[in-house]
Amino acid sequence: MALPLLVLLLVSVFNLVLLVSDRIVAGFATRQGARLAAQLGNGQGGLTNAQVDQQIVQAVQAGSANLVFGTVTEIDVYHPSTSNGSFQASDPHDSYDGSGHTITLGYPASGRGVTPPNEDSIGVRLVWSYTPPTGTYSFTLQLSEYTVMKAAPVLQ
Fold first, then answer.
1. How far is CA 118 from CA 15, 46, 70, 123, 151, in A?
2. Residue 103, pLDDT score
3. pLDDT score at 156
4. What does the pLDDT look like over 39-98, one tens digit per residue?
5. For residues 138 and 54, what is the distance between their CA atoms, to the nearest angstrom?
6. pLDDT recorded at residue 134
7. Which of 2, 145, 131 is nearest to 71 (CA)?
8. Is 107:144 a contact under the CB 8 Å cutoff?
């Protein structure tokens, strides 16, 4: 009688551990993207908005490649309007799907302030879904992670 309950508990813990592991990977991916966004700033070295964002998206995709049971659905590069840096739909942002294709453009590189002491904060948000691998549960969680950093371009 206790065996089914114990098996269910073990499967639940296993699913939870995999979810936490994927969440750590997603957080790492957003930090990689935000770090690159802060370095590239507004593309002062002659980069276009598309080139700046494409490099950010590629950094996030590379960082999220180790998601075991997670799937990237959206990547946003945005200027946060809240003090905690969380993404709001009204924030200026560029959105890309999980493959890196453009969804919306609304945050041009030319609008990203990089001159001290008035640097802009640039955020990178990763929206991803998690499906438990064991098949015991039939649901998918939609999750998001974000990281915000001050624009601090590397001057050439």
1. 44, 21, 37, 16, 9
2. 97
3. 47
4. 988 887 788 889 999 999 999 999 999 999 999 999 999 999 999 999 999 999 999 999
5. 35
6. 80
7. 131
8. no
pLDDT in tens, 93-118: 999 999 999 999 999 988 888 888 88
From CA 109, how far away is CA 9, in angstroms rounded?
49
Tokens linked to 24: 């750590």
Q: Among 130, 40, 46, which Cα is nearest to 77's?
A: 40
Instruction: For residue 128, give both structure tokens.
Output: 């991803």
Select from 66, 29, 41, 75 the least CA-distant residue to 154. Answer: 41
DSSP-derived secondary structure for the chain: -HHHHHHHHHHHHHHHHHHHHHHHHHHHHHHHHHHHHHHHTTTTTT--HHHHHHHHHHHHHHHGGG-SSEEEEEEEEE---STT----TTS-EEEEETTS-EEE----GGG---STTSPPEEEEEEEEEE--TTSSS---EEEEEEEEEE--PPP-
The CB density around residue 76, as the number of other CB atoms within 10 Å, is 25
